[in-house]
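Researcher: Here's the sequence for the chain we discussed earlier.
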Amino acid sequence: MLVISNCQSEYLAPFIELALADCACDYLPCHEVSTAEQHAGIERHLEESKESYQLIIAIPLGSVWRSMSKDALISRFGRDRLFFIMNVYFSGTHPDLTMVGDIRSRLRTPMGDPHSRIALGGWMAGLGEDEILGLFNPAMVEKLGFLSQIEQATVELRTREQDCDTKYTDELVHLAKVAFSFYTNNHPTPNVLASYVNHIRYHLVVRRQARSSDLPMNAMLATETLAKYGIWPVYPELKSVLAGNFPVSTLFLLPDTHLGSDLISRETYVRHSIAVYEEAGREKVAGFRQAQECHTLVAGALAK
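Model: Thanks. This is the structure I predict for it:
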């Protein structure tokens, strides 16, 4: 069996091996493939493995992904050996988080790829550190539209799963609202991965594409998690749209222990983010589409 997905693939594959009977699961992390040479290598591997992979579980990728795209996989392996799943991405509980630059040229902060839309937009608007920190309040969060982000993210999920063989949106949104389920928008916690794999197993068994191992899926089976890439907090200012006992915080867990400490405050994160922008220069930062969008968002909220 083969799993084709993004950074989630190396964590989905072990869960799937446990969930299904007599299952050995390889994985291809598509986000690590960018060069023509890498694409050629994937092409050769898939062609050489054409008869050995009896089932391929994949997110439906577009033509830019060449041999890993949905159409290319169908052409090579036939529809019956394919099971398409949704990329588990949810922005509802982290509406302030964004990436700057494309996947091959990210502008990085102490949290790695993620940026605060408030911090970046405030800096673009010419605000100082204290003024930016002052934007983190319930009234501003509402003006920025962050309180409706769960609804918007739900719509995005339903759109994304239209090309998939299973529908997981309702379960995912429920989990995200009642428990801490995402370290960042595209890094789900083990409880989400276990739930998703259990969901996938059910549909594969019903479709007679696999047999269940009958092992209960739960987060305790995870030997490693995506937390090593950092944890973005769910802000206290979002409390009104979450379950009453939802764990909110203003502390950031850094990837790979940057800055000599695993855990930093919102104040420290904003300060270091501003330093990143100052070092890069306003001209360079303003050249990123996402920076322009953050500027427009914050400036619009300030004008209300």
